Amino acid sequence: MDILEFLEDATKEADAFENHPIKDFSLEDQLLYLQGLALVMNADGAVHEDEKEYLRILIKSFDMDQSSLESLVEFANQPDKDTIQAFFKTYRRKPIAQLFLFDTLMMTRRDEVVHDKEMAVVNKMADQLEILKGTQKDIYDLFCFIKNKNWAESALYFSSHLLNPDHFKHLLDYHGLDMDEVLASAREFRLDRLKAAIQRKVNLEQYSWEPISYLDGSKLDPKETEITTEFLKQPLFTSELYLSLMQAKLDRGELRIEDGIAYQGSGTNVYASLKDLDLLYDQENMALYINPEILKERSDDAEGKSRKYSEELIKDITKLFGNDIDVNKPSDINKVLKPIFGSVISYGRKYGSSDFDIKFPSKQGNNINQIVLGHSGRFYNNPQRREYISSDSPALDMNIIDVLNSGRFRLMRTGKK
What we know:
elongated; Co-chaperone DjlA N-terminal domain-containing protein; 14 strands; TerB-like; four-stranded antiparallel beta sheet; DjlA_N
């Protein structure tokens, strides 16, 4: 007995995907799925043993008779139009077609050589299955990450609804990974990547800091000891972020754009006005881009810069930082600022009785329109260079995204030793 050959055979027999979604399909639909892959197998005019082995793995995963492999090879060499038409009729516009496209990519890499003819067949089948171009790219990216065992990047596709996780969970099981653990790492990875992008944009190193004092010379009691001398003028959420977020949704068919307005799906619910986000739309190429003609001018009236976002857009933005952020709860602004900058928004200090509620921190002799988080848990500013705001002064009608993009707040932190 050749032990090496025996071990190779035994390993092959153990090789199968548990809980592959197609396993729950009818035998007829399973066979059509495999016949679709068989077309890809022979796209370069040659059927390789490694490609046949991948079909064998799937056959075992579906609990089908192993003799099916021979008929699949025959079909690959002599396909018929009726079967091909039946395949597309069964899987066209079905979410499970995402997984089929993934399996075709697996098939093309089995012989370690990717032929142009193979990819031409794969792309043609993806188009015939009516898989959106954006989704095709998502699947290709996921394939590359899984192939290279880059689980943190792979997990982003399971945690952000880019793809249906139920169709790909078996891949994690196959590699001995726990979905919950992978999703947890994805949240951390996504936040780290977003933090790095915002840090590069804002560049906190360009700001100087000074000891915190208020207009009457008093000091702040809490642990923060210093404050930026100037406002954070760069908006944290920029047109680049909106473009990336919305283009992905547009590519997946979750948005449609008419007359400069992005709507959710085929309905009438407004997702965003492109003008508000400094975006334009190229209808011919279905592509968003940043309007080069618009230069942002920030008004001295911070309250007047409050923008109107749809609830869905706000939800998508804050979800990047965590699902527990309430955009209408002012104190939650520090759940965004603290992880990025290690700092918090400047506080308005309680002053005297209820007749004088909020005292503003000094700002190099110019204290106008500074937005602070009041001790009452609401946002306030001080128009006309006022030093104090009385308790009956109205709070700002701004959510945390409005404030983060206002260019009218400062950061506080514990001073460096």
